[in-house]
Task: inverse folding
């Protein structure tokens, strides 16, 4: 199947022999997820209001989803192939876990939009080639908050999408951002996605890294294994490593790495 025919949100499949279910731990009844007032701040921005009018919709149709992904891509060109890959990785992991198709559909939409909050990061920070200052990194950390606010303003109600956008940078040990929640305080989908997001970052192009895709994957897997129980939910790390070891991620690594990726991907069927 040629890469252009692959549609991660609309129904791409990765082989998943022998399903293994990822069961969430019991919820913590005393945990209340942090609330944000960022929505009010965002509405003051003329650029945001213009973007909301032109591309945001109460109905997440495939065309609207692609419009949003394109807007993120224009803002940060490095996200195009990254978005496509993490959608495919998440689909593979969820299929392996035995998730139903509706869960997979919503989760892959959330994965496609996980960085939507970057639309509110100043270009001077987002595109800065040098090391960020502490203040600049704090601004970057807010993209999970502003992304969640955008979802709320679009009247997105599905928890799986909201949870993925809001919590995808949290860590199992509580050292993530922006809320520093930990363990079972983090929604299951965000714990799973944290492994995927890190794996893709470690196998993507960086100025200081020559290897991408398959060549970088083995070292990335070692780092995920080492981070199990600290950075990552152990069950999600184990499941993803197992997918990799059985070759279920080879097609994605081979055909969609940054050395071979086309300039633009489609999230719809062509």
Result:
């Amino acid at each position: 199947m040629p890469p252009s025919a692959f549609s991660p949100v609309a129904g791409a499949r990765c082989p998943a022999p022998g399903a293994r279910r990822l069961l969430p731990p019991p919820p913590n009844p005393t945990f209340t997820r942090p609330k944000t007032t960022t929505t009010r701040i965002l509405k003051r921005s003329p650029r945001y209001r213009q973007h909301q009018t032109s591309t945001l919709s109460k109905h997440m149709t495939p065309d609207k989803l692609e419009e949003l992904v394109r807007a993120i891509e224009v803002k940060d060109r490095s996200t195009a192939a990254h978005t496509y890959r993490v959608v495919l990785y998440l689909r593979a992991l969820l299929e392996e876990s035995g998730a139903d198709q509706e869960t997979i559909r919503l989760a892959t939409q959330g994965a496609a939009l996980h960085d939507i909050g970057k639309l509110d990061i100043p270009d001077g920070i987002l595109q800065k080639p040098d090391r960020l200052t502490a203040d600049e990194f704090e601004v970057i950390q807010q993209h999970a908050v502003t992304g969640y606010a955008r979802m709320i303003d679009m009247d997105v109600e599905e928890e799986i999408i909201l949870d993925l956008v809001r919590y995808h940078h949290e860590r199992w040990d509580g050292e993530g951002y922006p809320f520093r929640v930990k363990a079972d305080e983090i929604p299951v989908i965000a714990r799973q996605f944290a492994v995927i997001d890190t794996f893709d970052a470690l196998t993507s192009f960086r100025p200081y890294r020559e290897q991408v895709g398959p060549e970088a994957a083995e070292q990335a897997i070692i780092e995920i294994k080492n981070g199990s129980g600290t950075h990552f939910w152990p069950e999600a790390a184990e499941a993803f490593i197992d997918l990799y070891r059985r070759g279920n991620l080879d097609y994605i690594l081979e055909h969609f790495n940054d050395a071979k990726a086309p300039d633009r991907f489609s999230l719809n069927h062509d």
